[in-house]
Amino acid sequence: MNPEKISVRTETGQNLEVVVLTKTANGIQVVIGEGVHNMKCDLAPTRNGMAYVGSIRGREVVYERSRAQVQADLDRANPALRLPRGR
């Protein structure tokens, strides 16, 4: 099993590779760190939908992809989610 990793930018300009726990167009939950030093962070879309922003221990974390791009990634990864269900 290969965990999905994304690159986020901190407020100091540092880029971090983080592991994705859950990913939807409405929010992304990631794990920052490894082992006993890991922390969960919820990323929510900004008002204009051009990025996802979260806070971990008072520091801002930004994932610079739009809501539409994330939805396109999800559709590409699992196209069956978009199909209507049969009765």
How would you portray this structure in words?
The protein has one domain (5-78). 13% of the residues lie in helices and 45% in strands. It is built from one helix and six strands, in the order E-E-E-E-E-E-H. It has one helix at residues 67-77; strands at residues 5-10, 15-24, 27-32, 39-45, 52-56, 59-63. The model has no long low-confidence stretch (mean pLDDT 91).
Give keywords.
87 residues; mainly beta; 6-stranded antiparallel barrel; single chain; 13% helix; globular
What is shown here, in short?
The protein is mostly beta strands and about 90 residues long. The protein has one helix spanning about 65-75; strands at about 5-10, 15-25, 25-30, 40-45, 50-55, 60-65. The protein has one domain (about 5-80).
| Domains (count) | 1
What is the global morphology? globular
Helix content: 10-25%
Query: What's the total helix number?
Result: 1
Average residue-wise pLDDT: 91
- List the helices and strands in order: EEEEEEH
Strand count: 6
Largest sheet: 6 strands, antiparallel, barrel
| Oligomer designation | single chain
* N-C termini distance: 33 Å
**Beta-strand fraction estimate:** 35-45%
In the predicted model, the low-confidence regions spanning at least 5 consecutive residues are: none
What structural class should be given to the helix and strand makeup?
A: mainly beta
Taking all Cα atoms into account, the compactness measure Rg is 14 Å
Strand order of the largest sheet: 1-2-3-4-5-6
